[in-house]
Design goal:
about 150 residues; mainly alpha; three-stranded parallel sheet
Length: about 150
């Protein structure tokens, strides 16, 4: 099994799978997340460049590309551990787009403290949802092989 906790890489899943053995299974992050939450036209998806430009969670969601410069700066700060104004960046996006919910669709966004996430609307972390899906799949396979 292959489980890659990076939203963007899943855009190239088919090409990568061509290089792997035929008996290797790729656990798709995008479908694993979509199995657990409803991404509606009023879901704000905040992620990396490929995730947002390729609309990996469906073209009907809100992808704030006009603010991508600020999102990229946030992701770099989280990557390098050089402090962050993540609360302000994410909250500003929430205020501007007024979504029903938010999907944090980049591994680096998982590094934000929970108190830095907007508290008035549901915020889903794709990394956490993917980890749960992978763990549940692994557990079910282990139990079925007993």
């Amino acid at each position: 099994m292959v489980a890659v906790p990076c939203n963007s890489i899943h855009f190239w899943r088919k090409e990568i799978m061509e290089c792997l053995p035929d008996d290797m299974e790729w656990i798709d992050m995008i479908s694993s997340v979509l199995d657990q939450i409803d991404v509606s036209p009023n879901t704000l998806v905040i992620g990396g460049y490929a995730t947002m430009t390729k609309a990996l969670y469906g073209g009907y969601a809100i992808y704030p590309m006009a603010e991508y410069k600020y999102i990229a700066q946030l992701l770099e700060k989280l990557r390098t551990g050089k402090g962050t104004d993540s609360e302000r960046t994410v909250q500003n996006l929430v205020w501007r787009y007024n979504p029903e919910n938010v999907l944090l669709a980049c591994t680096e966004l998982s590094l934000m403290d929970t108190q830095e996430r907007p508290g008035l609307i549901p915020v889903f972390d794709s990394g956490t949802l993917y980890a749960k899906a992978v763990a549940n799949l692994w557990k079910s396979r282990q139990l079925s092989s007993c």
